[in-house]
């Protein structure tokens, strides 16, 4: 069976010569070397046979035929000598190979015919020579044509056929034995030719593959060499650079000063030339298990990006590590800058809200003890920004950041700008005393004047809210909102102070929010709001000179709400403007009904001043109600002058120019600045009730009452003592020289006639 399939192969090979052009070319080249040898053997052997037969056979057989054959051999010999090993035209090769078959068949037939013709002329010796000649010719031809298997087989068939004919013809036992030997030898040669031919094909194919691989590798290397990425290969055992592409050498030149290395010497150098090669990179270089590996490392001032990948052969064998690397200093700087921008406020260079939040989260996640979160809000910054411009505003914010930064750095506190004029600080301490001291320092530092570039000076202040972790919360959201609540309480308490969060504050804030909404509703619907009046008397005559209008608010579910509670809410929410107009209108129209012609005093909050609108509003109310301007008195506190000093006073001047009287309320509390008394010509000074109440037991309070009364007398300003509750109070303020009095002793705030019924019903139901 095996033999049969071999035979089939053989026939197949003969019928279908090699199609592979590379193989055909290799066959041509091999034949080009062998065929001249073959023809040389044939020429020599033919003439030796011819010489032996010369005396016996006719001349056409011993001279003419050998000459003819020799001529044919020579033509082919010269052809192969000239072009055999150097056939350049690939297209010609199949033709050349094909031709070999025909030429071999014809020449083999020619030789056989000549030998057969000579045979009868010789004796047994010479007949043996003919047989030997045929065997030699056939076997040498077959081996020389080993790469042209079809031709070799043709020769073999012709030789075997010839040998058999001669054997039968001779009838000689020796010849017959020789002929049989020839058949066997040719058969063996056929077998060898087949095997060798196939080996040759395999060898050529292997050569072609090897050449291809070499070519691929060369192309790859050329590609790697020209690549814009710096590539190095390293011996995985010795960790020595085995190859460096062009870009690598160029890149190396840029950092040469840092490496103490000649760039030419890169190949063959230990990888330790990169001094700060991370340990992981070293491991990855010697063990492919750690691949791919990526790292960035510093080489002097430069940053190097290093990637290590493995190179594996087609059969899966590990060849070694490949390093691609680049100097990424600029990219890293750009990345860092972008990251910086994402995390910082460009004006103050402090952390921004997002980054501060992150940091707070980090600190809270890994608590190393209690921390305090401080919310710092600037007092009076809005005014600076609005009146002096944003450039000045920015300048002040930058200086604020610098002062905060200085103190915080000293205390190892982190700081961020949350936006606008709000800053936040993480102080690594929960110790109340230390935090208080820190807050006092911040407040006093921020209260110092800021000198601007144009030499002007600006004063602002700061309020602070504090929340402490873990006491007031363990998560940033909770802590931030609680510090914010404490801040708002600090702001209400009067600016320039700090407050620590207390649970009660949260409830208060919620309540304030709810109350604000209710108040807005009440003002819009004019529901539950009443104006009460309290008389102010001239001590000397006992006559009511004025009545102070005091607003009252009643909520069905909550009863009467104190103005000291809801007025600050109205002031903070801006509702005070509408509420103030309501009181003004009510007071003016009520005063018109009073038979004694007393003036009406209306409280005006700082928030109602400074916009340049109050004078017009008052004028239109006076015109609408028909009340004379000189029967209206407005009461303002010193804060109205402080906050928006210039424009606040401007509004008061307008009112005064219209004939409206202006009183300074609550004098003695807060600033009690004589400068304010000079800054504006008040018609009246109201001494705060707390002084009057305390004057009986505290001589210093009595002295203040006396001093203000004295000052009033000298400035020609009426002085009113508030909070007179008893006869003793009255006696004291009379003795100290006050002109007018107000207090429960003479009458508490009461509703107007039209409201009395409703108010008493509401009070009774409460
Ligand atoms: P204020 O302007 O100092 O008003 C005088 C306050 O003293 C009133 O409190 C009055 O009821 C109270 N009072 C009067 N006599 C005595 C007394 O003998 N002893 C004591 N202990 N207190 C006395 P009220 O009505 O609670 O108002 C509180 C504050 O609310 C006012 O203080 C004023 O600043 C503000 N306010 C009241 N109504 C208005 C308003 O319509 N507009 C504005 N902007 N503020 C108002
Ligand atoms: Ca008042
Ligand atoms: Ca008062």
Cofactors and ligands present?
ligand C2E, calcium ion
CATH superfamily label of the largest domain: EAL domain
**What is the overall silhouette?**
rod-shaped
Give the total of domains. 4
Structure classification: alpha/beta
Q: Say what the CATH topology of the largest domain is.
A: TIM Barrel
Strand content: 15-25%
By CATH reckoning, the class of the largest domain would read: Alpha Beta
Major sheet, described briefly? 8 strands, mixed, barrel
Q: Pick out the low-confidence regions.
A: none
Compute the number of strand runs: 22
Order of the strands making up the biggest sheet: 13-14-16-17-18-19-20-21
Number of helices: 27
Alpha-carbon distance between the two ends: 122 Å
Report the radius of gyration as a whole number of Å: 59 Å
Explain what the structure shows.
- The chain is α/β, with parallel strands linked by helices and 766 residues long.
- The chain has 27 helices and 22 strands.
- The strands form 4 sheets. The chain has an 8-stranded mixed barrel with strand order 13-14-16-17-18-19-20-21, surrounded by 6 helices. The protein has a 5-stranded antiparallel sheet with strand order 2-1-5-4-3, with helices on both faces. It has a 5-stranded mixed sheet with strand order 7-8-6-11-12, sandwiched between helices.
- α3 runs antiparallel to α4, α20 packs parallel to α22 (645-658) and α25 (699-715) crosses α26 (727-736).
- The termini are far apart.
- Bound molecules: ligand C2E and calcium ion (CA) (2 copies).
- The site of ligand C2E has 22 residues, from β14, α18, α19 and β18.
- One calcium ion is lined by residues 548, 603, 635, 665.
